[in-house]
Amino acid sequence: xxxxxxxxSVLHLLRKQVAINEKFCxxxxxxxxxxxxxxxxxxxxxxxxxxxxxxxxxxxxxxxADEFTAELIDGVAYVAGYDAESRPVVIFRIKQxxxxxxxxxxxTRLVAFTFEVAVQAMAxxxxxxxxxxxxxxxxxxxxxxxxxxxxxxxVADYYxxxxxKAFVIDPPSLFSYLWKGVKAFVELSGSTQIVSSLDYxxxxxxxxxxFKRPATATATSLRFDSAKFxxxxxxxxxxxxxxxxxxxxxxxxxxxxxxxSGAAISPFNxxxxxxxxxxxxxxxxxxxxxxxxHKSHIHAPAPIRHARTPKPSxxxxxxxxxxxxxxxQNRESFEGYLKFYRRPYDEMSYRAKxxxxxxxxxSIVSPQIRRRHVSLSQRF
Length: 380
Fold this sequence. Notes:
It is globular, with a radius of gyration of 33 Å. By secondary structure, it is an alpha/beta fold. It contains 14 helices and ten strands. It starts with a helix and ends with a helix. The chain is 37% helix and 13% strand.
C-alpha cells in the first residue's frame, strides 16, 4: 500500500506539469520509476517526465516495422527468444559503419522499436529482458563503446528496471580498457559483462549430443609390428603415420626409422609389408617394389619455452587478482544464452513476436488470412 500511495503521488505531481499518457503510466510503470530512483517521489516524477518527453520526440507510439525493412532483413536488432525465466533475449548485431551511414535519430528509433517489441512479448509475470551485443564485426573499440554506452543510457533513462543482464560478446582488445574508464559513469555497468565466444569452442552441440574437442591434436602411428608378421618381406624400418589435422593434400606420410641391430639393408628387411608387390613375393624378385628413401639424421625438436606467468605484485590493481574468478563467473552466467548467440536469425520468427501497431501491415492481417497464406505456401 505504501508503494501504491507513492505511485499516486508521482502521478499527481506529474499531472500538474505535463499531460501524461494514462495507458503508458500505469501502476507497474510508475513503480519501476520509483524503484530506479530509490522511492523518491520528486526524482521519480522528473525521470518519468523526461521519459514522456523523449517518447513524444521520437514518436514511440507511432513506430512500425515498415520503417526498418532493411534492418529486419539483415537482423541488425531483434528478439531471439526467451531464456529459462521467460525473459526476452534481445540481440544487437550492429555493424561498425552503421552509425556513419545512418543518423543518430534513426539509430535511437531502432533501439526503441526493438525494446518495445521485447516489452510487448513479455509474459504477465515478467518485466525484464536480456541484452546481447555481438561485437565480432567491430575493429574499433571507440565505435563500439559509443554504441554500448548510448544503448545502456536509453535503457537506464527510458526503460528503468527493465534490464536483467547485458553481455558484450567478442569486443576488440581496446574496448576492455575503454570500458574500465567509462563504466564508472554508466548506470547499468554493474549488469554488463564482457565475454568471449572462444571460451565455449570446446563444447559443440549437434543433435543434442555433446562433443569435446581434444586439447591438442595428435597423430596416430600405424607402425607394423614385425612379431605379428612372419613373412620374409616384413620390415620395421618404416613408420606409416596418419595425420588428424584434416590435411587433404597429405593425409599420411611415410618416415624412416633408425635400427639398433646394425644389419645391412637388403631387399627383404628393407621393404614394407604394406607396399610390397604380391607378384614380387611369388617370383622372388631381389629388388624392392618401393624406392628406398635416403638415410637421414633426425634431429630432436627444440623444447618449446612457454611464457612464464608474472608474479603478482602489490603495486598492481586489485582487479588483477580477481580476473580469473570474474571471467569464470561471466562464463557461467553467459552459458545459458550461448544458444541464442549461435542461432541463425529468422525474420519471420521475429515478426511473429510483434503486435499491432508495431508489426505494421503484416500484424494487421487477420489470423484466418495468415493461416491460409501459410497453407498455400507449404504446397511448393
